[in-house]
Amino acid sequence: MTSFGRHFRYVMSENPVTAVALGMVGLLTFAAVFGTVLAPYDPIATDTARALQPPSGSHWFGTDNLGRDVFSRVLAATRLDLGIAVAAVALSLVIGSVLGVLSGSFGGWLDRIVGRIMDTIMAFPLFVLAMGIVAALGNTIENVVYATALINLPFYTRVARAEAAVRRNAGYVEAARLAGNSEARLVAVHIFPMILPPLMVQISLNLGWAILNAAGLSFIGLGVRPPSPEWGIMVAEGASFIISGQWWLALMPGAVLMFAVLAFNLLGDGMRDLVDPRQRT
Amino acid sequence: MALLEVENLAIEFRTRGGTVHALENVGLSVDSGEIVGVVGESGSGKSVSAFAVMGILDPAARVTAGRIEFDGTDILTAGERKLRKMRGRDMAMVFQNARGALNPIRTIGQQIADVLRCHKFGDRGAIGDQVVAALKTVRIPDPETRAGAYPYELSGGMCQRVGIALAMACQPRLLIADEPTTGLDVTTQSTIMDLIRDLVRANRKAAILITHDLLLAEEYCDRIVVMHAGHVVETASTAALFAAPRHPYTAALIASTPRQDTRLAALRPIAGSIPDLRADLPPCRFAARCPRRIERCVNEPLPRIAADGDAGHVTACWRPL
After folding, report:
1. Domains delineated in chain B
2. Element (H, E) at B166
3. Which of A115, B155, B171, B188 has the fewest Cβ atoms nearer than 10 Å?
4. Considering CB atoms only, which of A177, A180, A190 is closest to B103?
5. Chain B contact present for A172, CB below 8 A
6. pTM of the predicted model as reported, rounded to 2 decimal places
7. In sequence order, what DSSP letters do the residues of B44-56 get, joined into one string?
8. What is the distance in angstroms between the Cα of A130 and the nearest Cα belonging to chain B?
9. Which segments of B54-126 does DSSP mark as H helices, in order?
10. What strands, in cross-sheet order, belong to the sheet with B231-237?
11. What are A208-252's pLDDT values in tens digits?
12. Looking at this predicted complex, what is its ipTM?
């Protein structure tokens, strides 16, 4: 464990941006876990006497048209937004990596069928596809998760397939086959673990995108419903107040959303540099 | 009955550029306690033959004739399930690129344990001891610690020892070593080869040594099979082969091999190269490069001629030396 710690410190000191990104992700995770406890006000309690107050010492991000504390709402929304993104990415990771590894390792008709399904998904404008899925399946948070998972599926499948197709010809795979291992074991023990690093990069890059996607869906009124605090809804609700000068309603949740997406993208970039040194600049 | 009998084996590959006649009329037999060398240039079909013996063929390959029998089992008709049980337990392979043949993210102990577990070999509870014992047989110093090492932590020679330990873990009766020392330096080469020889001799196993290094084959093999362009051109005991080669290709191969006492000027390279195996080839595939070629070589199927007084010295040539 100490050697891991030393290695970790070395890697982070070599990649300061990645270290910052990791800190940002840590902060988001902390907010997701403890946000509701730390929030100074009840995120859904209305107080019309304090409506539309600009940011101040007592209300850091100001208050909205119903007098709810924007900071508390943004903080409380972290769990929901991160939760949707993590659940969706986990789902597409599990399904996508298995489909990809199988089609990359065995090829043939399985590869062709999986490949065409992924092409079909990719052929849609992905956000519109997600909208359609949520509209068709019903306007619930679970369906936002399923829709986000489905539109992310091709990325995982393709990365896993490409990596597995390279690895299946590796010497140690052939050696393991000649030592009497079954094809299933070759895939599980000798091919699958080798494709995890590039998939980790994909996860991090994808998490940011999934958050943006979930917020985008609720911005247009799909998925999360008011009064639940959620970044997308808050931006949507706040947008109408920008013209009348109450900029903080939309800007504050928007800025946090940007912070979250940036954090995951930076982390993904950093991880890609670690996984593939050839791409280091 | 020999442990391994390959008879009349013919394999072709269907490729976009045409059908490659990779092997034709390949015969080979290996007895227990014997090390048989398979020598020839690159592309002569040595490795394809070895993989065929292990029951593994490229999806593009087709066996068009012949028989492979290992200890009473017909490899070519046996089911995949049966073959899988035999691979690693009854016959095992050592590879040219030892480091590449080890999974980089598993410790060598785990990888040896994998093979033992895969074949439910020995005592389940004592796998750790068996791993250490396997490393000990290949003379790896401090095997208890080394079992926890990753392949990148070991030198090329050490990796090849691990490769041999892996192959011998389940005490197979046949070991196929495919150019086991090609990537290693000369001193490591001889320790690795000594190791293979000792393991085979000590337990009356059998081994096939695939190599392009004639001197290596001469030093370690009991019998040698010379291959050229997918044909077995000559089979003989090592002593007979070097004392009196009968096939012109064997003779040329020996004449082109540098020895301690040969001068550079005395080396005679073999003219030409291995013919394109996709083409329509004459019965003798060496004919185009052969100084002793006669009309018969390109018109009539090749004979199998045994040497006088040595039934084991067979050559496929109309005009043997």
Report:
1. 4-90+172-315 (3.40.50.300)
2. helix B156-168
3. B155
4. A190
5. yes
6. 0.79
7. SSHHHHHHHHTT-
8. 38
9. 80-86, 108-118
10. B91-94, B174-178, B206-211, B35-39, B223-228, B231-237, B310-315, B305-307
11. 889 998 888 988 888 888 778 888 888 888 888 888 888 888 888
12. 0.81
Cα–Cα distance for residue pair B20/B12, rounded to 1 Å:
5
Q: What is the pLDDT of residues B18-38, one digit of tens each?
A: 888 889 889 999 999 899 999
Quick check: A13 pLDDT over 70? yes
Distance CA A188, CA A209 (A): 29
Question: Could you name the CATH architecture of A17-29+64-276?
Answer: Orthogonal Bundle (1.10)
Look up residue B126 and give its DSSP letter: G
Domain layout of chain A by residue ranges? 17-29+64-276
- DSSP string covering chain A, please? -HHHHHHHHHHHHH-HHHHHHHHHHHHHHHHHHHHHHH-SS-TT---GGGTTPPS-SSSTT-B-TT--BHHHHHHHHHHHHHHHHHHHHHHHHHHHHHHHHHHHHH-HHHHHHHHHHHHHHHHS-HHHHHHHHHHHH-SSHHHHHHHHHHHHHHHHHHHHHHHHHHHTTSHHHHHHHHTT--HHHIIIIIIGGGGHHHHHHHHHHHHHHHHHHHHHHHHTT-SS-TTS--HHHHHHHHHHHHTTT-THHHHHHHHHHHHHHHHHHHHHHHHHHHH-GGG--
User: Two tokens at B178?
Assistant: 């495919």
